[in-house]
Structure formats: C-alpha cells, structure tokens
C-alpha cells in the first residue's frame, strides 16, 4: 500500500506528459504554459517536501499520510475540470503541495516499519522499483486515458488511487511520530522554498539567454537564499533539514544521484514522449505503450539485482547503473525523422531499464542508512525532494538545449520535424552527460565492500561499519 503511494506520486509527474498536446489545444496553452504544467507539480512538490517531512514527523505520519491523500485527490478533481491554463497549472501546484505531505509520510512509515534486516532490503527494493517505474507507467496510463476518454482523466483517475490508499491506511497503518520537543523551522522553510523556486525559474528563463538579466538575477537569488538556508540550519534548535542527514558521505552521494535520476525521468522522458507523438506520429496510447519496454526491463531486472546486491555490495551497482543509462541515452540521441521504433528507440529503452534497475535497488536504502528515527521524515523528504527538484531543474535545462538546437535547425532552413528532432537529440545527449556525472559521484562518495558493510561516520566523526542487512 505504501509502494502504491510512491507509484501515484511519481506517476503524476509524467501522466499528463502524454496528454499535453491535447490539453494544449483544448485549453489554448502556450509552449511556456505547457512546460509549467509539468514544472509546477515538480517544483512545489520538491520545494515543500522538507516541511512535509517535518510535519509528518511531528504531527504524526499516519495522520499526514491521510491528509495528503485526501488533499491530493481534491486537487486532482480540480485539475480534471480545469477551464483554462491558470486552473490547470494551479491544480498541478496543489497536487505538488499535498504530495509533499504524502510522500515523506509514506517513506518514513516504511523506514520505521522495516528498521533493519533482509525485510528492509526487500521492502526498499520493491518501493524503489515501483516508484522508479512510475514514470513509464504514467505515460502508458496517460496515453490510454487520453485516447479513449479525455486528457482530463489523467487527473481524475487519481481519485480511485486515493480511495484505495485511504481505506488501506485506516486498516493497516499504525501512528508514529518523533518524540521530544518539536518546533517548526519557519525561516528555513521560507528560504529553501524561495531559493529552490528562484533556481528553477532562473533556469526556465535561460532559453532567452544565459546572460539575460532575469536568468542571472533569479539564479543568483536562488544561490543566496539557499546559502541563507544552510546558515539558518546550523543555528536553529529544530532545523527543517538537520545537516547531519546530508553531510554523511554515503547519504549525500545518494541524494545527488537521486537528483540526476529525477532530471532524466522527468525531463528526458517528456521529450521522448513528444518525439514519439510529434515526429513519429504515434497516437497517445501507442506512444505510452512504446515506453513499456523500459518498465518491463526494470521489473525483470530488480529481482536479479536484489539477489546480487548482498554479494557485490551497492557501490558497483551505483557506478555501473548510471553508465548503462548514459549508454541508452546516447542511443536515443541518434533519433531521426524517419527512424523506426525498433531500430532507434527500443535499444535505448532496454539499456535505460537495466541501468535504472541497478540504481533503484540500493538507492533509497543508501539514502536512509543510519538515519535516526527522529529524522526519518526529514530524510525521506530529502530523498523525494532531490528527485523532484532535480527533475524541475533538469526539465528547464533540457528545454534550453532543445530550444537552441531546434532554433539552429530552423535558421539553417531545415524542415520543422528535422529541427524538432535535432532538439530531442540534444536533450538526450545532455541527459547522458548528466548520468556520467552521477557515475562519478557514486565512485567518489559511495563506499562499501563485497561483504556489504558501508562506511559512515558516527556522531564523533569516527568511521563505523553499517550492514546492508
């Protein structure tokens, strides 16, 4: 039931992607508004996740889960009946708001329910695999709903998931919360939310030029606000994000890799969906089904990776996985206007599935290794926040690559579809570069041996061994 929650949260990041062409025509969205339908969800979700995690810790994780579920359903209904761009973008932002309460509560409940042992490894493997495949599942479901019903059902379908989640939570879940003196870090919340928002908005303006006043101004403001956030966190009694959660080398590396994965799943996946529909002429359902190969490969590889993880440890998976994903993206960068699915798309998706499975199995367990129960919600929120913010920034940056390459093609007199294809190819190349950076991060920051222990520092700064079991 908790894994289903993760599926819904990740799924909603992409389910509307496949419906965007029809929603754009129906509501008269501009290209900028089309992008913000995706960005609004990821940005609000990522910016408020830390606060959502602390609310879950202090207020009660089961209670936060239920409120998040119900609010998410209400926002979905609002979006399903949107009459203009403002309604749709606002509804997506509200979905992100309640997802920011729902997601860390679910992951924190999983953390305290499986504190150690083989069951914990299995639980996180299942949780990560389902959440990781949610992006592709969203494309398939969105395609089916758009083609046979309406793009509006890509939002309204959440009501069924919400009903199942609420009923399951009332029956199965037990309340848990952090003990002790709990106060909210309001200044930390304000600075991190505005700082992340400024960064994402600054990157979205980069299409106009990296040297423009708006781009430089918002990026600089974002950096200053995030620096202020770090300063605040070192001085408040109950920080929104205890720096001990992210300063651990292993967890810090896992968070950085999660951000890169988010950029690929949210950013590159959107442009693949556009290529399948606009250039290859696929109907929404067919375009969604075209991504099933990646999901099938992920689900097939996860059990194998879970069995091999105790033998080799997490480090090889976290290095090799991103390299394989980068290889898949390099294959996708070879797309052409007249290229076929089997020859130009499928091989890349298969490699993406293999690499992502290798990453998903150990990733969230690494990100939460050694976290104290009092910080479970904050750590869980950081896991999700890094993915969503990475996706928001990635989508904005990839859009710049796409726009520049497509504009260059049009200026050179190339046909429109060829110019679009140039843009999509540039996005996949940029995403491949990001995944190679993730492999380097894993090589420097994820440590461990074949016998499975991980090295992390204790409260006194001494290295201790923590078993993956």
UniProtKB/TrEMBL annotation:
Identify the domain of life.
Answer: Bacteria
Task: Give one Pfam family.
Answer: MFS_1
Q: What is its main location?
A: membrane
Q: What is the topology of this protein in the membrane according to its UniProt annotation?
A: Multi-pass membrane protein
SUPFAM superfamilies according to UniProt:
MFS general substrate transporter
Q: Which GO terms describe its molecular function?
A: transmembrane transporter activity
UniProt keyword terms in alphabetical order = Cell membrane, Membrane, Transmembrane, Transmembrane helix, Transport
Major facilitator superfamily (MFS) profile domain span: 1-450
Where is the chain membrane-spanning?
Answer: 35-52, 64-81, 93-112, 124-144, 150-172, 184-204, 210-232, 253-273, 285-305, 317-335, 341-361, 382-403, 423-446
Q: Which locations, inside or outside the cell, does it occupy?
A: Cell membrane
Q: Which GO terms describe its cellular component?
A: plasma membrane
Query: Which CDD domains does the entry link to?
Result: MFS_MMR_MDR_like
Q: Which PANTHER family match?
A: BLR6921 PROTEIN (PTHR42718:SF46), MAJOR FACILITATOR SUPERFAMILY MULTIDRUG TRANSPORTER MFSC (PTHR42718)
Q: Please identify the protein, giving its name as recorded.
A: MFS transporter
* Lineage, highest ranks first: Bacteria, Bacillati, Actinomycetota, Actinomycetes, Micrococcales
